[in-house]
Amino acid sequence: MINPERFSRIKELLRHRQPDLTVLMDNVNKPHNLSAIIRSCDAVGIETVHAVSTDNMIRNRQRAARGSNKWVNLVLHENIEKAYETLREQEMQLLVAHYSEKAVNFRAIDYSIPTAIVMGAELFGPSESAVSRADHLIYIPMQGMVESLNVSVAAAVILFEAQRQRLEAGLYSQPRLPAEYMKKRLFELAYPAVSKKMARLGRPYPELDIDGKIIRN
Q1: Domains contained in the chain, CATH given
Q2: Is the CB of residue 171 less than 8 Å from the CB of residue 18?
Q3: Taking a C-beta distance cutoff of 8 angstroms, is the pair 209, 187 a contact?
Q4: d(Cα 151, Cα 39) in Å, to the nearest integer?
Q5: Which end of the chain is more exposed for a tag (fewer CB within 10 A), N or C?
Q6: pTM metric for this prediction
């Protein structure tokens, strides 16, 4: 049985999740950057992260990242076009972190509306396809000699600006996940082994009491 304090913490986590804020990783391939970006997403309340890869090596690393963090969902897409299609169906604005003459200061963006932040590969940046289809290009101002930040650091900087704006807008003050999804996700996070077994058997999850104990019929 789950510890009541841990169960309460998981419920609190889900109460703050932001279903309309996400990150799309465009060929981000270094394992430590993948993990760091996902941790930052968890920290600001992102429920689902997206990723695109152009080769099997990157895809395998992304799958490994998906399996290493149970708190955040990671959805893999075959290409940037399909990823963008999915995000546009959710009515998200697509922001690509990429410096150019058309780019705007990342703080000038309204993150309180549905938003997907696109981060490119460590060495080459976002793909041309990602850039050309963006709603806005954003950049982080620099005052030093370096021209750019590590991709996971840059993602964190942008995400915490999004968190700041959303806190001011009151978007963390009440649950925003659909009630049925929240109930299902709560059971999966509280009882990961049991939920996997129930899914294999095609059986519905049992009810939980206020302390997280399974109610047996």
Answers
A1: 1-17+177-217 (no CATH), 18-168 (3.40.1280.10)
A2: yes
A3: no
A4: 13
A5: C
A6: 0.93
